[in-house]
Amino acid sequence: MLAAQPLTAAQVPSPKKNEIKKSQIELPAEPEKYELIRVMVQKPSPSLEVGTNSPYELLDQNDQLLFRGDRIVSTRVTPAPEGIRFGRQTFKTRSLRLSIQEGEIVVGRRKYYHVLDILKNDQGLLKAVSELSMEEYLKGVLPVEASPSWPMESLRAHAIVSRTYALFNILEKEGLPYDVAADVSSQVYGGLGTHDPRTDAAVDDTAGQVLTYQKKIFPAYFHSTCGGATTRADQVWTLEKHPCLMGVKCDFCKGSRHYRWDGVFTLKQIEARLKKNGFNAVGVKGLSAQGRDASGRVLSFGIDTARGEKKISSNGLRMFLGPSHFKSTLITEIQKTDGGYRFRGKGWGHGVGFCQYGAKKLAELGYSHRQILDFYYPNAGITRLYPGRKAERGL
Asked: Residue 2 pLDDT more than 80?
């Protein structure tokens, strides 16, 4: 991706309410222009701690050199009324670019490659965006999203899934300040400190390969444990229906520790978390499941409040209550308790696309990474972005 001047928050177009998002995008004619990815590694914050262990350059929003040096001892960066304060100096700019040729850029306790953009938003907060190559990025994703000890075929499959997901986001968000976040809102990226030889090899083995349907790329969603069946993407998000994201029956993730779960929430907790996330809920008195999809997942919940019943998507409620405790929408039982509800369910995650624990088991049974991908994304093919290049390790 070509580097561009970051947009301010006011310049970023807001999605229209209930807008149906595209589920596939044409592959670029010149994919080499999209070999860089921009990862938000620090959400908007009042301050950042930044350092380097090697020579650096610091540039302003117009790519004008501010200064260069041998290294930066951990330095506090804060917003200022007229710009950004870096250590003891204030610069009249809405963004700073910290660039190194080798070594590491440190943000807080994590280490990153090459280029870091510090962006000031319209609320006067700072976020940090790391820019690096796609393949370097994936080597910081795979060991966090999957276990390096898992079978190589499942890791190769995951590398293709994660690359596809990342490139779709680059194309979908072209011109915006960043492509993906480093947390679970996208896919978790751990930076330089997380690399492992086995996951590095899985990325190298599949270099440049992405999932496509009729030569178009789609968002290759994945999750931990499906609980017995994956589900349709368009029933979880406001997204166009896609033939590769329609859901499949999966009997392979039963060994996951997340296959069954339960969680207890009081009515006060439910009300507080709904309000915190901007959902109009006053005097929550109860809730009820409304409709299920073909996989058995609840489609939505009715929230009984002092102002009448409100409706919320089941995945929205899951995210508001906390996906580490309300692990899935594949609810098997809702039990009223004294002052709240006990939920029992199966699986962990949104349930769309690639089931990580299912892929692990399929690899243990002898399935190749191509067969695993065929299982979770029926009708999909694999396209090499750079057909003239060879992967470091052949298929």
From this structure: no
- Reduce the DSSP state of residue 167 to 3 states and report it: helix
Specify the 3-state DSSP secondary structure of 141: helix
Report how many domains make up the chain. 3
Return the pLDDT at 298: 97
Q: Which helix (H) or strand (E) holds 361?
A: helix 356-364
One-letter amino acid for residue 248 of the chain: V
Q: What is the mean pLDDT of residues 4-8?
A: 30
Asked if residues 158 and 202 have their Cβ atoms less than 8 Å apart, the reply is yes
pTM over 0.85: yes
2 in a structural domain: no
Q: CB 288: neighbour CB atoms within 10 A?
A: 12
pLDDT, residue 11, reads 31
Rg (CA), the chain: 22
Domain that holds residue 375: 138-254+351-384
Q: Is the Cβ–Cβ distance between 157 and 372 less than 8 Å? A: yes
What pLDDT shows up at residue 389? 59
Distance CA 41, CA 78 (A): 16
Mean pLDDT of the chain: 92
Task: Give CA torsion, residues 154, 155, 159, 165, to 10 deg.
Answer: 50
Same domain? 233 vs 311: no
| 321 plus 355 within the same structural domain | no
* 174 and 246 assigned to the same domain: yes
Is 264 in contact with 342 (CB distance < 8 Å)? Answer: yes
In a domain, 26, yes or no: no
- Run of H or E residues at 270: helix 267-276
- The string of pLDDT tens digits covering residues 367-390 is 999 999 999 999 999 999 987 655
Q: Which residues contact 122 (CB under 8 A, 6 or more apart)?
A: 8, 9, 10
Comparing 326 with 387, the larger pLDDT belongs to: 326
**Is 17 part of any domain?**
no
- Would the pLDDT of 334 be above 80? yes
CB 95 within 8 A of CB 120: yes
- Residues 210, 383 contacting (CB under 8 angstroms): yes
Instruction: Say if residue 338 is in the same domain as residue 359.
Output: no
> Structure tokens of 48?
């950042």
Beta bridge partners of 9: none
Q: What is the mean pLDDT of residues 166-183?
A: 95
pLDDT at residue 148 is higher than 50:
yes
Note whether 180 and 94 are same-domain residues: no
